[in-house]
Structures are given as structure tokens and as C-alpha cells.
Write a structure and sequence with these properties.
The complex is a heterodimer of chains A (253) and B (265).
Chain A: E1 8-19, E2 22-33, E3 37-41, H1 48-56, E4 63-68, E5 82-85, H2 87-92, H3 100-105, H4 109-112, H5 120-132, H6 148-160, E6 166-170, H7 178-195, E7 198-203, E8 215-220, E9 222-227, H8 235-242
Chain B: H1 8-33, H2 38-57, H3 61-82, H4 87-108, H5 115-121, H6 129-148, H7 150-158, H8 160-165, H9 170-188, H10 197-209, H11 215-240, H12 244-262
The chains are: A alpha/beta (253), B mainly alpha (265).
Chain lengths: 253, 265
Amino acid sequence: MPVAKKKNALELDGVAFSYNRQPILEGITFTVAEGDYLGIIGPNGGGKTTLIKIILGLLKPEVGSVRIFGENPAQFQRRGEIGYVSQRAQQAGMNFPATVEEVVMSGRASRAGAFHAFRSEDKKAAENAMETAGILRYRGHLLEELSGGERQRVFIARALATEPKILILDEPVAGVDIASQERFYDFIEQLNKEMGITILFVSHDIDVIAHEVKTVLCVNRRLVCHGSPRELIKEEFLEKLYGKGVKMIVHGH
Amino acid sequence: MFEIFQFDFMIRAFLAGIAVAAVAPVIGTFLVVRRYSLMADTLSHVALLGVALGFLAKINPLISAAALSILAAFGLESLRTGRRISGDAALALFLSGSLAAAVVIISIAHGFNVSLFSFLFGSISTVSPSDLWLIIGFAFFALLSVFVFYKELFLVSLDEDLAEASGLKTKFLNIVLTVLAALVVVVSIKVVGALLIGALMVIPVLTALQWKRGFRGTILLSVLFSLLSAILGIFFSYYLGWASGGTIVLISLFFFLLSAFFGRK
């Protein structure tokens, strides 16, 4: 589905954040167009998750501003438009007694509203999300009965159930086997191309930019690079990001 | 049919037991999945301090226990979110602190009388009509709250960040859960006693988890096990003369062992 008019899904301007006086992020400025597929890469401890939390409105930037579809995240009312898959949820799911359907339905919690039970439209949206993620046949299964890759899809389906315009994935392939990872990248690409969902894909692994991302953002406290994957294969950027001696192999697309 | 039901105090015992058994594992499920099983024990020691203060001030000890536990619920939550000390350390601090204060108050008052003992170990046959109304009222309120906030409490238990990113008021929900736990402790204190409340909130949940159901299924099964334990426990304790709280908890442990052996693998 082509996007008729490209708006900015996300705008960050001069964002800085520190923890215990230790700067975590400084001078982060970038925009993400609607329909983009952005890979956010950087070493562990480089501030990626903090950046995501600021975008989600879970943390407030000390300096600078964030706009989601032109609005401040903390006041952003249409929360359903941001789908989020946290790294922790997938691990927590291991010891949590919940069925696939219960987890996916929880994506509708804020849409249904406080003091309201789920309606039939919530159930329908959850079913569509499970269908899209290819896990409808597991709906009655417990999370712990699934493989890492399948559990991964449950949390994506949970995010999709909110019918998001932006999907934020924090280290989604960590702990998923290689074969499932490939299918997973294909699946995300399909969400971006066919459903027009803006994707923010966070990874400490530079492999992610070797896949289908349209734009890459490298974060290591500061914004080290920002551009198309091909522009960024140059060694100098990777050196800034990970230190000397890192080379990049990009698949031909 | 049974002579046990000829006595008003035993009918009150059954009603109190059923109310407590219905609500304890519901709140307990949320505590167990959040690795907060010790919360119940901590709040029960705070409640004990509340009971001691109630005796000292000559007011219904259940009321002072409820007030103090709810206050402690807020304190625990702010300590936890303040991140100056970890969640389990905050629990330990409140548990030992309030037990110490309770012991001192009891010694100041030269031991009160035997009824304090009944708050420690439970004495279901001493539930007065006004106690029964308090117990049923608190239990009903706690169940209603879980019913109203079910989907929000589920999500905040699954992952707090996800819940907050979805726009839920996680601070409020955490307080709701802790306050509900405090209320359950207060309604349980006469039935199983302060020292065994944790068992009543946790063991039926662990039993239900052996059967590997979803979240709702786990809650319903835990209530079933808990009701069975309470009803059987009151019968046994009446006919055998055993302490009611201990008997109920032992029976729930028996169900746990059965489930651990025969549950879904």
C-alpha cells in the first residue's frame, strides 16, 4: 500500500538524556518519514534503549523535543498508533501463565478503555493480528510451549493488534535461531511494504542493516551516522561506532 | 444434616472462609507472576502491627490493621519505584520492622490477652458478626476491583514498560494491586492468621500453575483449589479439633503435591 502523502512519523530535535550525571544521549536530531524502515544500530550501552524509551514517552528528555505525528509523546493520546515490542517481554513470557490469545488481546487494553470489557471489535483485531503473524493456530497455547521465534511473533501480533502506524522493535532477534531470523526479517519487511507501517528496528548487531532497512541510524551516545545502508558501509562510520577493524558485508539487493 | 451448621459461629466461620478463599488466590496470582510472593507475608506482619495498635487504642483490630496495611502498601510502592533499594529488600525492611514494632507494643501492654494469639495463627470460630461483614465487604471490593481492572492488571503484570507505552497508568495500577493485597491480608487474618496468610495467597496459585492453563484459567483453578482447601479445612478442624489456619494450609499443600505429581507436564 503506497503512502499517498509522506508525513513525518517522528521528529527528534537536540534530544539529550543522562543518568546519574552520566550522559547517555547527546544532541540527537533526526526525523523519520511515514512508511520508513529504520534500523537503529549501536553497541550495547550506547543509548539505544534509552532513545526508544524517550520516543515512547517512558522517559523525558532533559533537553530537546520529541514529536510523534507532530505531538509530544507524553501527551500523545493515540497510543494505539505506536506498537512496541520490548526485549524484556519476550523473556518474561517464558514464566508467565498466559495463552497466545490472552497476550495478543492485551494489545487492545488501552483501545478498549478503562472500565470497559473487550468488545467484539477487539477480538476481531486480535484475530487479524494473529493471522498476519501466522500464529492463529497457536491461539490457545501457552507462551512457554512455543519456540523463541514463535513467541517473538506473539509479541509482534500483540503490537499489531493495536493497529499501529509505527512499530518499534527492541532487539527482536536476540535469542531467535538463524533460520527463524531470516523468516522474521521477511515478515517485518512485509509489514513495512504491504501494510505501510513505519518500522523502527533496534539492534546491537550490524547485520540488521544488511537486510531490508531503508535508513540506518547509528547511535553511540551521539548520532554517529544517519543515511541509507549503502552510504554507510564505509569503514569510518563503523569505526566510530564499534571501534577499529569492523567491516560490513552487505547482501546485494 | 451436619451438626456443624447448628452453630451460628460455625456458619460465620464457613462464610468467612469462603470469602477469603475466593479472593486470596485471585490477588495472589498477580503477586506470584510478578515474583512478589513475599508481599503477602510482609503485609501480614504490618497487619499484625495494626492489630497490636488496635488493641492498644481499643478499636476493632481489623480496622486498624486495614488502615496500616494500606499505608504500608503506598510506602512499599514508593520505595520500589524510587529504586533506592530493590523490591525484595523493601519487603524485608517492612516485614522485620513492623514485626519488631508489634512485639514492642505487645510488651508495653503486658501481653494483652489470648485473642492476639488468634490473630497470629487464626481462629476462625471467633469471627464475630461485625468481623464477618468487614471480611465479606473487603473481599467483595477486592474481587470487584480485579474484575474492573482485569485487562490493565494483566498487562502491567506481563510487562510494565509495555503497559506504560500503551498509555496505562502503571503507578496507579501498582498501587491498586498492593492495596488489594493489603485488604486480602486483613480479611484473611482471622481465618488463617497473620503467619499463614502468605500461604493462602500463594499455594493455591502454585497448585493451579501445575495444570498449565492460561492466565484466566490459572486464576479460576486457584480459586477452586483454595475454596476446596478452606471448606475441607474448616470441616477437619471442627471434627478433629485441629487449628483451623494450619489445617487449611496443610490441605492446600496436599493439593499442591497432588497437582505437582499429576498435573500437565
